[in-house]
Design brief:
Rossmann fold; Hypothetical protein af1432; 2 domains; 5-stranded parallel β-sheet; rod-shaped
Length: about 375
């Protein structure tokens, strides 16, 4: 299909001459004023505009300004036509964004050559833009797939580790759900606004599955022990936090996203710290505990109480869990976070009801928990 060229000139003779020269190779549209050209361009998009400069009412430069202000016409290549051979005029043509400049009366071979080269260059530009966009789309899709694979591997690894103590991997999914719920509720209430950005919450949720990755170095005898741990066993269990940090540095420590890596390390290392400084492994207090770990601590304990473990039945009803956790306000948990969490009871019930329906679980009644265990 032939390319379309719009010729704009107030001189009828010039329009006829241009049409005679160009029509064997191109389809020609002709307008005898700037206003007529702009009207034509409202419904048509030519491949090139040959634009006379010296026209009454609206000259070529004014037309060019309007073309460049419209998203529909700003990228159409323009060649200026003029009998004015002054150097300043030529300079202004290029400053206005013209692709080329042809003096009148135009020499046929020069006009044909410059029209052909301009259209060819514009086609190259379109092809290059398309190739760049295709490559960008491919990179985006490859990155999305890589992230999905990475997330799947991380969650799969975390599930495998968690299943060693009989939790069948539910703890990973559950805590990730609760972490998101807590973080989004805190953000909605404008708490911790300097930290709880959308990016932070996404990184936090991606990091949550790795909070107990260090358990891989804890013996099965401790992880699967049905009763209370001895002080020596508990000391070994507490090492899973530092093990986690070392493992994380090894497997993801060299990725470019430092923000994500820092959150993963903080969650893994400090989610057993307590607000009053009696937690482990560093004995941090208050806001000295990273926010990510303070959020993780609430999600982790809630799931540990609600779900069955090899060393305890689940605690029921959920109101009993909330009562137990509320007693840790200002000692185990950040007061602001636990206060918000207490008010999330209806949303938590809804999530747990959906989980129960999906899994066909049996409701346990009663049951207490041993505080000197691996999850609390």
């Amino acid at each position: 299909m032939k390319n379309i060229i719009l010729v704009v000139d107030d001189d009828k003779t010039n329009l006829m001459r241009a049409q005679k020269l160009l029509s064997p190779q191109y389809r020609i549209a002709a307008c005898n004023s700037g206003n007529a050209a702009l009207k034509y361009l409202e419904e048509h998009r030519p491949d090139l505009i040959l634009l006379d400069i010296n026209m009454p009412e609206m000259d070529g430069f004014e037309v060019m300004e309007k073309l460049r202000c419209s998203g529909n016409t700003e990228n159409i290549p323009v060649i200026f036509l003029t009998a004015d051979n002054l150097a300043e005029t030529e300079v202004k043509c290029f400053q206005m964004g013209a692709m080329d400049f042809v003096a009148k009366p135009f020499v046929p071979d020069i006009l044909l050559s410059r029209v052909a080269k301009t259209i060819e260059l514009d086609q190259y530009r379109h092809n290059l833009e398309r190739m760049v966009q295709e490559q960008a789309d491919k990179i985006t899709e490859d990155t999305r797939r890589l992230n999905m694979i990475q997330d799947s591997v991380i969650v799969g690894m975390a599930n495998l580790i968690e299943s060693r103590d009989g939790s069948t991997g539910k703890h990973v999914k559950n805590t990730q759900t609760y972490v998101r719920m807590i973080a989004e509720e805190l953000r909605g209430r404008k708490l911790f606004p300097e930290e709880l950005s959308e990016e932070y919450i996404e990184d936090l949720c991606k990091a949550a599955p790795l909070h107990d990755v260090g358990k891989i170095k804890v013996s099965d005898a401790i992880l699967q022990k049905p009763g209370k741990l001895t002080p020596e066993e508990f000391d070994e269990m507490k090492l899973h936090t530092t093990y986690s940090r070392k493992i994380i540095k090894t497997i993801i420590g060299d990725i470019e996203d430092e923000h994500y890596v820092r959150i993963v390390e903080d969650i893994a290392m400090y989610h057993h710290e307590r607000w009053d400084g009696t937690g482990y492994p560093a004995g941090l207090t208050g806001e000295g505990i990273p926010l990510s770990a303070r959020i993780m601590a609430v999600a982790d304990v809630f799931d540990a109480l609600y779900e069955e473990r090899c060393y305890k039945p689940p605690v029921r009803p959920i109101e009993r869990i909330m009562q137990i956790m509320s007693e840790g306000r200002g000692t185990q948990f950040d007061p602001n976070i636990i206060d918000v969490f207490m008010e999330m009871l209806p949303a938590l019930k809804e999530v747990l009801h959906i989980q129960s329906e999906q899994k066909g679980t049996v409701t346990w009644l009663g049951g207490e928990t041993d505080s000197q265990r691996k999850d609390i």
